[in-house]
Design goal:
Distance between the termini: 52 Å
Strand content: 5-15%
Strand order of the largest sheet: 1-2
Shape: globular
Order of helices and strands: HHHHEEH
Number of helices: 5
Structural class: mainly alpha
Radius of gyration: 18 Å
Helix content: 55-70%
Oligomer: single chain
Length: 122
């Protein structure tokens, strides 16, 4: 899905929302930022496998979409922190029921695989 779909007024609202969080890391970043402001290094440590380049790109896109606020503290060395904007918190709250559904799905799949792996009782 292209980011330009998020700007199309004729597109479905769900499609516009998914375009903003599309990608491997954005929902995980939202989840991490719910706890409060974070420095980029802390975000990378919390999300193994996330490269600095991809982190920077995702945070810039999220900032341009109004989801995160970037604050640069004027100290040496420069210290940057990211936090959710009220709009980002709204999105996070809107995603909570979807996250609960995802957990129920995972539980259901785990139950299926456990039932499939169980040996029949004689």
């Amino acid at each position: 899905m292209t980011r330009s779909r998020a700007l199309d007024p004729e597109v479905c609202g769900v499609t516009a929302a998914v375009a903003v969080i599309d990608g491997k890391w954005k929902t995980a970043l939202l989840w991490q930022l719910e706890a409060g402001p974070q420095r980029p290094g802390a975000l990378r440590r919390a999300l193994p496998g996330l490269s600095e380049k991809v982190l920077t790109q995702a945070l810039r896109e999220m900032e341009s979409d109004g989801l995160v606020h970037r604050e640069v503290h004027d100290v040496l060395p420069l210290r940057t922190e990211y936090s959710l904007t009220p709009f980002g918190r709204d999105l996070s709250e809107a995603l909570a029921p979807l996250a609960a559904w995802g957990h129920r799905r995972l539980d259901m799949l785990a139950g299926r695989s456990a039932a499939a792996g169980a040996s029949p009782v004689a």
